[in-house]
Amino acid sequence: MIIENCSKQENSSSSFAEEIDNTYSKKVARVSTENTVYKFPKGLPAFEDCHNFSLLVNDNIKPFLYLKSLDRDGLGFICIDPFLVKNDYNVDLSAKDVSLLELKDTTDVMILTFVTVNEDPTLTTTNLLAPVVINTEKKLGQQIILSDSGNEVKYKIWSGLEG
Length: 163
Known about the structure:
Elements: E1 2-4, H1 16-31, E2 38-39, E3 52-57, E4 65-69, E5 76-80, H2 82-85, E6 90-92, H3 95-100, E7 109-116, E8 125-126, E9 132-135, E10 140-143, E11 155-156, H4 157-162
Antiparallel strand pairs: 1-6, 2-3, 3-4, 4-5, 5-7, 7-8, 7-9, 8-11, 9-10
């Protein structure tokens, strides 16, 4: 199952701010409330004991989101929709991943990538090699490694915005 940027605008004159608003209203807001719990059956790499997460949305930090562990106090990850920073990004899910996440349709998928914030915002990166894939219908998630994809572990977010 290949997940591509379904929000590509036919009218490419839309601003980045409009694209962010579209992403929030169409994806995140419809699938996440304060009480939504996403189950990660395998946990996350290095945090295999953490299986329950919530996705916190705050308009003050758009386009970033916060994936918060409900199993370990103080553990959370800043995330972003990778399609906002790399328009031609895609995720090719294996049959095993599709099965684990119980995916039936690409419209039930939300893709996020972890962000590493730098003191210099222009050096802030996101991990395009290991996205978090969430089945928004079943509330199941998993971080997957896209081997042989050519994606970067430290993709500079501003690279995609400047291009």
